[in-house]
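Annotated sample (chain length 160).
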Amino acid sequence: MIRIFGEFELDDTSRKLRRGGQTVKLSGQALDLLSLLIGCPGQLIARDEIKRQLWPDSKLELEHSLDVLMNRLRSILGDSGTSPRYIETVPRKGYRFLGPVRCEPHRTQTTAKPTVMRRFATYAAIALLAAVATLLIVHSQYDRFVPSQRVPIRPAIQPR
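Output written by the structure step:
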């Protein structure tokens, strides 16, 4: 599934973020955080819920880690906490993704089959041409490599 917001596309399958078709460097927990936020646009997601989702096994205090991660994500999106375009901070509560998120089916699945079929057809055509060329060469050179089975004809009457 591809989720589109603003000029960005988040491809859930390949886990890549694109801006205007160009891949934006975003990975790991920042990508997980973005996915979590755009999964519920307009809804407040509590800081504790985010920490549970991103660091499920951690017993440490992760307030600073979440702040750093949110700043990194906002920087990549060209967003700011003071005048949010995508991510709104609700003080001491959590975060809310602003704006609409549109979902589209994964596009590479529909384009992958014709590409594979085209490649297969190309290889099959090359193999067929190679087989025909080989048969022509073998046929033209057959007499040279296989001795003739002809028996010489001797005249019935031998001249004296």
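Annotation: The helical segments are 28-38, 47-54, 63-77, 108-145.
Annotation: The chain has two domains: 2-104, 108-144.
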